[in-house]
Amino acid sequence: MQIRIFEMLNLINSKLSNLERNVSKLDEKLEFSIQLMRNQLIRVKHGEDIDDSTILMGRPYNDLSPIKAFEIYQNQDIDFVVLDVSSKEFKSKTHIAESVSIPLDELDKRCHEIMNKTTPILIISEDGLKSIQACELLVKKGYFNVNNISGGHEFWPGNKEESLSQSA
Question: What crossing angle do the helices spanning 157-167 and 66-74 adopt, rounded to 10°?
């Protein structure tokens, strides 16, 4: 009889542990959703464009076309940071003036170098894939205004302007 009671207590304890884990996961998801809504509200407050899919799909960062990102880059009235997460080997070939260069594999340890968590961050990489990972990482670290430059350096309009000015 005592063995049966002990088995039942173990079963109840196991179910309680599973329930606690599930509640903890729900709590994390809720906290992330609240942070995401705050992120979007800050952008709306600052008059920034947020595409519908960002809101409807719950994406924590914006995808910017290279042309839109370049317009922001050229606008002297907008405060922003350009973060290049390309590999060190790639950076020797191309560089955006005044960008902060932190390779993706170092970003987790060096993200503190980006001081302001609400200033827009335009993130670029070789082909736009590492920049997506960087966006997701920075959102988890509490950065609110993260923007992926779709297509990366390959489609950055500034590269065309630089090559035209060098050939002239």
Answer: 70
Rounded CA-CA distance 4/6 in Å is 5
HSE of 79 in the Cβ direction (CA atoms, 13 Å)?
6
What's the domain count of the chain? 1
Query: Is residue 86 situated within a structural domain?
Result: yes
**CB contact at 8 A, 127 and 152:** yes
Dist CA 55 CA 44 (whole Å) = 11
Determine the pLDDT at residue 115. 86
Structural domain containing residue 145: 50-167
Over residues 78-121, the pLDDT tens digits come to 889 999 999 877 765 667 888 999 999 999 999 999 988 888 99
| Radius of gyration (C-alpha) of the chain in whole angstroms | 22
DSSP assignments along 130-168, one per residue:
HHHHHHHHHHHTT-S-EEEETTGGGG-HHHHHHHHHHH-
Burial category of 3 from C-beta neighbours within 10 Å (exposed 0-12, middle 13-18, buried 19 and up): exposed
What integer is the mean pLDDT of 118-147?
A: 92
